[in-house]
Write a structure and sequence with these properties.
CATH superfamily of the largest domain: Pseudouridine synthase
Helix content: 10-25%
Radius of gyration: 23 Å
CATH topology of the largest domain: Pseudouridine synthase
Length: 329
């Protein structure tokens, strides 16, 4: 059933935009964007008059009522797909996504996705993200990237986790196997990222435009006289394909990355030929989301998780003579 929330504008908020005032006066279950949609859809009333402009200026002691409609059913269908759940409570789910699982339904992947799996797993527990009974995807991993993701079960958690992503208090650490060895072996990569003008499937580092992107990296092990290396990356920002784009822009493509790899591998041939061949045949980008840290949206407790390397990643390292037991934590 729909429910109504009524607020009175205090003196301190007089002159503010309506959407901003409501976002402050109404509890944390509703984001400003969600409130804007409700206002524009005719759910906000003042003195029996429907207000549809989120930008109007409010006055002291004005009373506004906003109707919250019940969450509608999500369009994607629930599907019973096994999930590796690391942590779960009433607000969030932390899971270890396997290689090959697409996060969200899209063209070419109408079902069989993480969202379909979560709808089945969370049956009856989702209170609605933006008015729809669906899991809140705070950040994504590419289909062929494995590792940790956090998902919100309600608007309250989704809003807080999204804010942490923006303020960089939600941190993500990755393990990557790249061609050659970075110089210097540790550092920070900065470069705005936006859509490539030459290939719309790719992102690129842009001189003009794009969004700020910052990646920290540290070389952990050198493989076969420098043919490749194992690198730890930490995201300060979360742009699409960020690690893949930043590293490829420096000439250090992810092993197995068919989208960003170079046209020729001649300059990469070094070390033992058999090790080069093993790396060259790896069928997906060698990238794993190993670590995740955040502040719990309700308890405000600092939480951290780690996910072990998937089997194919470990087997690749072992085949290249890397002692994975000696890998830095």
């Amino acid at each position: 059933m729909p429910h109504k929330i009524t607020v009175t504008i205090p003196e301190i908020l007089a002159g503010s935009r309506l959407d901003n005032a409501l976002s402050i006066l109404i509890d944390d279950n509703f984001s400003r964007a969600r409130l804007q949609k409700l206002i524009m859809s005719g759910e906000c009333v003042r003195d029996k008059q429907v207000i549809i402009k989120p930008s109007i200026k409010v006055k002291e002691e004005e009373e506004y009522s906003i109707t919250i409609p019940p969450a509608i059913e999500a369009e994607p269908k629930a599907q019973d797909i096994p999930l590796d759940i690391i942590y779960e409570d009433e607000d969030i789910i932390v899971l270890n996504k396997p290689v090959g699982l697409v996060v969200h339904p899209a063209v070419g992947h109408a079902d069989g996705t993480l969202v379909n799996a979560l709808l089945a797993h969370c049956a009856g527990e989702l209170s609605g993200i933006g008015g729809v009974k669906r899991p809140g995807i705070v950040h994504r991993l590419d289909k062929d990237t494995s590792g940790l993701m956090v998902v919100a079960k309600n608007d309250f958690a989704h809003k807080h986790l999204s804010e942490q992503l923006s303020s960089r208090t939600l941190t993500r650490k990755y393990q990557a196997i790249i061609w050659k060895v970075l110089s210097p072996m540790s550092g920070v990569i900065e470069g705005n990222i936006g859509r490539s003008s030459s290939n719309r499937k790719k992102m690129a580092v842009l001189r003009n435009g794009g969004k700020e992107a910052i990646t920290e990296y540290e070389t952990e092990q050198i493989i076969s006289q420098g043919v490749a290396s194992l690198v730890k990356c930490k995201l300060r920002t979360g742009r699409t394909h960020q690690i893949r784009v930043h590293l490829s822009n420096m000439g250090h493509w992810l092993v197995g990355d068919t989208l960003y790899r170079p046209n020729s591998f001649k300059t990469l041939r070094r070390g033992k030929p058999e090790i080069f061949d093993i790396l060259h045949k790896f069928p997906r980008q060698a990238l794993h989301a190993e670590g995740l840290s955040l502040i719990h949206p309700r308890s405000e407790e600092e939480l951290s998780w780690t996910a072990p390397l998937p089997d194919d990643f470990k087997e690749l390292l072992l085949s290249c003579g890397v002692n994975i037991n000696m890998k830095k934590g």
